[in-house]
């Protein structure tokens, strides 16, 4: 029998407690897989009493550094989240020659390159499956399962809070603010939900996925990020009339002149599988040259779904202990010396089809004037609907018009929208939402 692998746990909240529970409940099954016991010997947190698991055999405390420095810890599992002190603790663990498992997407997205370089120097591993999409094994699938493919693009619903809000708006016609309040009451959203609803959380995850898909450095600062807080039920409703569902997507695509890396509300044809992922669930579609499109679906958060990914990483690390570092799967899937330097495209340089909604004065010839300006810029209209005026009694009624355009570079579309907004007949700003057909 091989020596047990001893775990030092940083953070004993929802995921930390779930990790202890899964390790203890499935101890026999895990030992059958690894040939050795995996034991949590130490755990530390600001409030260690939050451990909702059997504490037997675990030395609990508040000193995080003591866990990282302990001689009876082989693998440090970082579940405290955030940038600091997580970064310092992880780097200290690596310096001490310990392997690291983390669920911290923000840490990997911003400081992953530094952390992976330090780990390579010390010959230890950093595993981070739980950092993206909770219990869905998307990191391993892209990095290892699709290793023989050239990945062309990936698109994902990778934030459960945002997906819950949009599902409620779509299915029940509810207002954003009301659904957000319910999400907070249900525990899906934090008291400060900014990272979820404004796309930062999804951008962290997309940055990681793009890096392992395309073999490029982590480039979180270059990711275009747009939230859902300004999305109106009106646009969700009109999108449905046109045969689309609105989702908050992360999109990464390999182009000849760079990488697309963007998070924003997106229309998807309602018949696509991704359009039917609702509630707090996550899903990612990956398009690769050999296998074609593949879909990964499951719980993107929660105690045991996330703990499932953490424990899988611990098992992988346990199997690597004692093995030469050059035999390990590279942290980002590609040899460090062969990582590409492809830049991220500015959002104005991408090409997309678009949903547009505008308010126009009820005048003869207004539609002809709008279509003429679009045609001059080479923008064709795939579908258009003109609704009746909301207030027929007004001196000059205002009509809502919504349409779907052909594929066009965003820079060109933005210039055209400014020209349209300058028309006397167009009232206010034009709403623009990108469309992904997932062909």
Q: What is the CA-CA span between the terminal residues?
A: 51 Å
How many strands appear in the DSSP assignment? Answer: 17
Question: Spans with pLDDT under 50 lasting ≥5 residues?
Answer: none
* Helix content range: 25-40%
Main sheet characteristics: 11 strands, mixed
User: What is the CATH C level class of the largest domain, in words?
Assistant: Alpha Beta
Radius of gyration: 24 Å
The computed structural class is alpha/beta
Quaternary assembly:
single chain
Averaging pLDDT over every residue, what do you get? 94
Query: How many structural domains in the coordinates?
Result: 3
Shape: elongated
Strand composition percent: 25-35%
In the CATH hierarchy, the architecture of the largest domain is 3-Layer(aba) Sandwich
The total count of helices amounts to 14
CATH fold node name of the largest domain: Rossmann fold
The CATH homology group name of the largest domain: NAD(P)-binding Rossmann-like Domain
